[in-house]
Amino acid sequence: MKKIVVSEGVSLDGVFEAQTMGQWAQPFSSDEKDEHVRELILESDALLLGRTTYDGHAYYWPSLKNNEYGIADRMNSMSKYVVTSTPLQTQWNNSTIINGNVVEEIARLKQQPGQNILIQGSATLVEALMQADLIDEYHFMVHPVIVGSGKRFFKDGMGMSKLKLVESKPINHGIVVMSYEPTGG
Predict the structure, then answer these.
(1) What's the count of helices (H) and strands (E) in the chain, helices before strands?
(2) Mean of all residue pLDDT scores within the chain
(3) Alpha-carbon separation of residue 38 from 116, 136, 148 (angstroms)
(4) Pick the CATH number of 4-182 from 3.90.1310.10, 3.10.620.30, 3.40.430.10, 2.40.70.10
(5) Strand 137-143 vs strand 4-11: parallel, antiparallel, or unpaired?
(6) pTM (2 decimals)?
(7) Model confidence over 18-29: pLDDT tens digits?
(8) 63-106, pLDDT tens digit by residue?
(9) 159 vs 77, 101, 134, 173, CA distance in Å?
(10) Where do the H-state alpha helices sit in the chain?
């Protein structure tokens, strides 16, 4: 059975917005941070993405032909599942659209053998899967910066979800990698 693993970089105040991430996350780049991301990708054999995140990934990753970052080949070859309600031409290889009963279809994906299903970005999708108790792990790289405004990963009105801290590890430049599992309560 597969696990659904959420991986996200956030500011101290919870901002994760891709449009501004270069401004607040890029200054904290390091080999140690890249290695954490690389490990999560190599432990996965599928990506599960919302439409906006998919569009960004589908634009970027296929253009990499020399296995940049040690993961480009993996990102381009793994299965990709895209949750969208709008028409999409799957321009990135191995992409499948999920637009029916999303929770039911993703629950079926979890039943298959294999490695993890990794979610990057896709906060709206994560919220729906949290409500359906389908998320198995959360990995947050908390950057030591307060952005002040922008799209936050967890939005007001989501409801409370209790988590158990599995690991907390400081890495270069004051980033703290925190891993959590839902407690079911």
Answers:
(1) 6, 8
(2) 90
(3) 13, 19, 29
(4) 3.40.430.10
(5) parallel
(6) 0.92
(7) 678 888 888 888
(8) 988 887 788 999 999 999 999 988 887 789 999 999 889 999 99
(9) 36, 22, 16, 32
(10) 18-24, 31-42, 51-60, 72-77, 102-111, 123-131
Amino acid identity, position 110: K
Distance CA 44, CA 56 (A): 19
Q: What is the pLDDT of residues 101-155, one digit of tens each?
A: 999 999 999 999 999 999 998 888 999 999 899 999 999 999 999 998 888 888 7
CA separation for the pair 66, 123 (Å, rounded)? 30
Domain boundaries, the chain: 4-182
Tokens of 60: 């970027």
**Which residue(s) pair with 181 in the sheet?**
164
Phi, psi of 102 (to 5 degrees): -60, -50
- Contact between 154 and 20 under an 8 Å Cβ cutoff? The reply is no
Instruction: Specify the 3-state DSSP secondary structure of 170.
Output: strand
